[in-house]
Amino acid sequence: MSETLTDTLDPEQVLWEERVPGGAHWSGVLRRGNTLRVTAVEGGANVSMLFYNYEEKLERYNMADTLKGQHTAVLTRGHVCYSDMGRVMCSITEDTCGWHDTISGVSNASMVRRKYGEARYQEQHDDYYKNGYDSLLNEVGKYGLGKRDLVSNLNLFSKVIVDDAGNLCFKENNSSAGDYIDLRFEMNALVVLSTCQHPLDPGDTYDPKDIILSAWHSGTAAGDDACRNACPENQRAFINTERMFA
Questions:
Q1: Rounded to two decimals, what is the model's pTM?
Q2: pLDDT digits 0-9 by tens, 39-54
Q3: Which structural domain, as residue segments, surrounds residue 232?
Q4: Number of domains in the chain
């Protein structure tokens, strides 16, 4: 895969960097003005991700407003993620993949069992088969959240299209080893993710892929920022966000 962030930036700029195994789950706080790079170690990676306002977790990523406000069904460079309060949670400042799924949700235990077979913790220990729903639920539970707080998520590195008959079609080979997406956070956000396989992945082998997370202090959006000025709706959402920190 490509070089890591610590190879390309002054080490003093990098806040931290870590590898997250395939089939794992992770959570952490990204502060306003910091950027998180998510890098696929191999092709075929999937990262199911949710965002919450760290100060007021009832405010969280809203898929419908994000897509409606920017007149799109997918996310890539130049787009932002809206909260349900009309504020920008994070901006996509770089993206080598070009298409990230917003509509397909996550796998659950019964789905994984039907597709890949049974591999329980009691027999397989840490090699048991994980699923996206339970993985995200495990993480949000650390912050006092539960089932009702799991809203529609992003699936980074995965591409799903809708055909003429209305069927959801998973497109294989959407990402390659070393592909990355940069998320610049415009508010203090709780980030929750799972690296389980996409629910529509047609493969019949349980084989989730590793990712690398890298964070650095990038600063906030300037007046001429491409994400801010992509559309009038984004400009208004940035104003709403900045008023929280005025």
A1: 0.94
A2: 999 999 999 999 999 9
A3: 5-244
A4: 1
